[in-house]
Input
Amino acid sequence: MKASFFTLALLLGSLCSSHAMELNFTDARVTFNPSQKFFRVQKQNQPSTMISVIPGESAKFLQVEIRDSVLSIDTGKFFSNGGKEVYLHQFRHAWSDPGSREGRFSAEMAASPDGSKIKLVFHGKNFWKEKIFPLNSNWGKPDFQEKYPAGLKSVYTRIHLLSPGVYRIRSMSLQESGEKKP
Output
């Protein structure tokens, strides 16, 4: 089942390929896929955001909703009932020329209780970089900038929700810059 989440996220993420991408949740909707045990947050003219959990059977304890254009994810019951991981798949960016690039991934977020933690992740073939951020009830914008290795042809982003709490997300963005290799 774990492979099917990743495959689906890759396929949905391939819809997005510009150098600056932003997702917000105005007029978005949340659906749950009971057979594959993941949530999909979808908005017209934007790529989907997938919310996956491990183990999949614990998905029933995750509470996900959109209210006032804010995605809210309550992980309290999930973690107290044996849940191990909650993560959101957002962006995929691909390019044809191997060059020197870097990306900046950020999310406008808040969480309670104060001290709830997230991990922002860049990953691709043989590439994984992550950074952990504490959140509090005030809106903030965790920001993670990373240089990609030469030859990397695509990159994906994820947000891992690491502790019990209520996480609120207004928007997420990926900005990339780079040059062709000399």
Q: What stands out?
A: The CA atoms of residues 121 and 130 lie 4 Å apart. Residues 2-13 form the longest helix (12 residues). The mean pLDDT is 84. The helical segments are 2-13, 76-80.
